[in-house]
Amino acid sequence: MPYVNIRITREGATSEQKAALIKGVTQLLVDILGKNPATTVVTIDEVDTDNWGVGGETITARRKRGA
Amino acid sequence: MPYVNIRITREGATSEQKAALIKGVTQLLVDILGKNPATTVVTIDEVDTDNWGVGGETITARRKRGA
Amino acid sequence: MPYVNIRITREGATSEQKAALIKGVTQLLVDILGKNPATTVVTIDEVDTDNWGVGGETITARRKRGA
Amino acid sequence: MPYVNIRITREGATSEQKAALIKGVTQLLVDILGKNPATTVVTIDEVDTDNWGVGGETITARRKRGA
Amino acid sequence: MPYVNIRITREGATSEQKAALIKGVTQLLVDILGKNPATTVVTIDEVDTDNWGVGGETITARRKRGA
Amino acid sequence: MPYVNIRITREGATSEQKAALIKGVTQLLVDILGKNPATTVVTIDEVDTDNWGVGGETITARRKRGA
């Protein structure tokens, strides 16, 4: 019955990539902890680069200065 | 002072349904735990079906195959 | 497939109260949005009063001054 | 390595305000807890007023009646 | 810069299992989305079975009746 | 009505430090976004170093090898 929330910046992840991520994380929980995949929930939040900060500045600002 | 976060798939919940959910959850916290409704916060996140997985596959894929 | 997270201060909620909360919230999602209860997950986080703030002060401080 | 999530209603916060918030929160973690800013992550979620409730009603409804 | 939160019931996951989960999820984000592992954060929350519900009842209750 | 969640490793933050963090974050939301402090909620989650990973390894492991 695990619940997993994955947060990434919204920068063009495709449906295929997101499906692969959901499949992969679910399988890890089965393999490592013996969890039941049928009740394992994974959600992905894509967050605008203006709304994500690291090192005290937004990802938008970091991208602009090439960081 | 409770904080409740409800996550559902983005599949057409109406403003009325969301208002009813907020009202109902707040009332439960009053009735069961004696919480003050004035400081009870409820947020609802609607998540795209591509970004929600269960059983290792996305809700989009499940809907397509009629699951 | 909803996921609900309820956060309250750790101040003695009983197992019975928590079970009632889980039951009630699940039923609301069934009644209002037609969700399947079998795949509705509810988690409750109990947070120490030192770790919860409102109005810029901790709940511990508010309780001490009778707020 | 702290992770901070800030949730506000979606009511026109500007990129500059969000950048200031990210900068300020990161600095607080440096000043108060001695955290390394380079690995401090801050995300901001802007939530529709239909999806945010307090006192058992949505912010949309509160705004309408001038609360 | 992804942030991943994994929530499981507190039922004896070992330090080794949790380390394997952190390693595996980080690698998935590298392999599927090309993320930088150095800034990928994974947290695991272990939630008491009294505080986790599915199907409207707690995991504690489900375990007792053999579900 | 903002809600802020701060997640740090459980490594001895004092009650005074946590109170300062709550006060400071609340003030930032007042100063930058004009939010009402009375309805601003801040919670702090302290996460065991075994349950927090960065760069694919736990903080426990990083501390041991002096990272």
UniProtKB/TrEMBL annotation, chains A, B, C, D, E, F:
What this protein is called in its record is Tautomerase
Output the SUPFAM superfamilies linked to this UniProt entry: Tautomerase/MIF
Alphabetized, the UniProt keywords read: Isomerase
- Lineage, top-rank taxon, reads Bacteria
User: Is the keyword RNA-binding in the record?
Assistant: no
The parts of the chain that form a coiled coil are none
Q: What is its EC number?
A: 5.3.2.-
Belongs to which family?
Belongs to the 4-oxalocrotonate tautomerase family.
Positions of the 4-oxalocrotonate tautomerase-like domain: 2-62
Q: Which Pfam families match?
A: Tautomerase
Q: Per the record's keyword annotation, is Zinc included, yes or no?
A: no
Q: Note the PANTHER family from the entry.
A: 2-HYDROXYMUCONATE TAUTOMERASE (PTHR35530:SF1), TAUTOMERASE-RELATED (PTHR35530)
